TrEMBL record:
Protein name: 1-acyl-sn-glycerol-3-phosphate acyltransferase
Chain positions covered by the region annotation Disordered: 230-284
Source organism of the structure: Streptomyces spirodelae
Compositionally biased residues, Low complexity: 257-277
Gene Ontology MF term list: acyltransferase activity
Residue intervals of the Phospholipid/glycerol acyltransferase domain: 46-164
CDD domains attached to this UniProt entry: LPLAT_AGPAT-like (cd07989)
Pfam families: Acyltransferase
Length: 284
């Protein structure tokens, strides 16, 4: 298995600097509830799949993961790596640039595969963006994490988090921190997923979607345990929601049909149908 030789990434200067700067305010402003630390592998490469419901939750997850001694490498937009302190920090901590314009889906994650094979942890937000679910449940996921999981066969750890969204809701009109009363950042890791049934199958779009659904089901299960309530039966799908919004908008903008003599709104094809009915009565 990749990474089974005990290799693990050293924390390094930049990660220690980030921890030095960020941990004190996080400890001061938030309470912490770390769960499932025993599921984080002590050595070897692995993947975490994490839900995303606040601009703050990468910090809470990174804090949790840093405390396990296994620092994560996040996939981030390539623009964040272009110069300045942020760019230097992103490069120095070993974060992975994602070239979203790449037509080669596997090639876009080549650095993630290489990192895992070197014994590192790569963290995926499979939703690809902040959840749009009105109740903050995980949405349908993208297939990047599934591709990397099948290529590397590395352990996949589902992680759920809650609390950062209460301090900074994802789509609040006012981007203000709600620090008081003091919020608790809960991060819960679950046991590794068994994806062995998919390893010898061709990674078709259908297989990648199945693996992604397995991952999102596991993350949702962890979040349901954290929240102490059942998850919705159907996962929020941004594409379906966009189609529904488009159809509703088109319906609102559609011109009203003229009304008939009886006051009922006529629809296309109504007159021919009436004529056919009349003809049928005449021939009866």
């Amino acid at each position: 298995m990749p990474g089974s030789d005990g290799k693990r990434r050293k924390i390094g200067f930049w990660y220690r600097l980030a921890a030095f700067l960020l941990k004190p305010p996080l400890i001061l402003l938030f309470k912490r509830d770390w769960r499932g630390v025993e599921h984080i592998p002590q050595d070897g490469g692995f993947i975490t799949v994490v839900n995303h419901n606040s601009y703050l939750d990468p910090l809470s997850y990174a804090h949790f993961q840093y405390n396990t001694g296994r620092v994560p490498r996040f996939l981030a937009k390539v623009g964040l790596f272009k110069g300045g302190f942020v760019g230097a920090a992103m490069r120095g901590t070993g974060q992975i640039p994602v070239y979203r314009e790449s037509a080669d889906a596997v090639g876009a994650f080549r650095a993630a595969v290489e990192a895992i094979e070197k014994g590192e942890c790569v963290a995926f937000y499979p939703e690809g963006t902040l959840t749009r679910d009105p109740e903050m449940w995980p949405m349908t996921g993208k297939t990047g994490a599934a591709r990397v999981a099948l290529l590397t066969r590395a352990p996949v750890i589902p992680v759920a988090q809650w609390g950062a969204n209460l301090a900074m809701p994802p789509y609040a009109k006012e981007k203000k921190l709600r620090l008081f009363p003091r919020k608790t950042l809960i991060v819960q890791a679950g046991p590794p997923l068994d994806l062995s049934a998919y390893y010898d199958r061709e990674p078709t779009a259908e297989v990648l979607r199945e693996v992604t659904d397995v991952m999102m089901d596991a993350v949702t299960e962890q979040l349901a345990a954290v929240r102490g309530e059942p998850a919705p039966a159907e996962r929020y799908d941004m594409r379906k929601a966009a189609v529904q919004r488009h159809e509703q908008r088109a319906a609102r903008e559609r011109p009203a049909q003229p009304r008939g003599a009886d006051g009922q709104q006529e629809t296309a094809g109504q007159a021919p149908a009436t004529a056919e009915a009349a003809e049928g009565e005449k021939n009866a």
